[in-house]
Amino acid sequence: MELVSAYLRASAPRTYCDACLAFAVQEAVEAVHQAAEGLTEQEQFARKTGRCRTCRSTKRLVTRAAPTTLACKGSVGLAPTLIR
Predict the structure, then answer these.
(1) Range 38-58 burial, b when 16+ CB lie within 10 A, else e
(2) Which site in 19, 23, 70, 79 is 20 to 30 Å from 11, CA atoms measured?
C-alpha cells in the first residue's frame, strides 16, 4: 500500500485506473485495487468514475485528494488553509 500511496502523491493530481496504476508500480492489479480501496478510507485519496488519462478508458479511478480538502479536515471553526 505504501508504494501505491507514494506513487499517487508524486504524480498528483493525475488519476489512474487500477490497471494502469498496477502497471506503473509493477504490482498485481488485485493488490493495487485493495491498496487503493484502503487508501480512500484514510480520506487522503479519492475514488471516482472517470476517464483514465493513461489508457483513456472510463472506469473507477483513484487520485490524491485535493489539498484544500485535506486542509479542511479537522479544522472545525477555522478558515480553510491551502496546504502546498
Answers:
(1) ebbeeeebeeeeeebeeeeee
(2) 79
CATH code, residues 2-72: 1.10.10.10
Domain range annotation of the chain: 2-72
Phi and psi dihedrals of 78, rounded to 5? -110, 150
Could you count the other beta carbons within 10 Å of the beta carbon of residue 6? Answer: 11
What lies within 8 Å, CB to CB, of 59 at 6+ separation is 17, 49, 52
List pLDDT tens digits, range 1-37: 889 999 999 988 899 999 999 999 999 999 999 999 9
Give the pLDDT confidence score for residue 67 in this predicted structure.
60
Q: Name the 3-class secondary structure at 40.
A: helix
- For residue 16, what pLDDT is reported? 94
Length of the chain: 84
Calpha distance 54→63 (Å, rounded) = 13
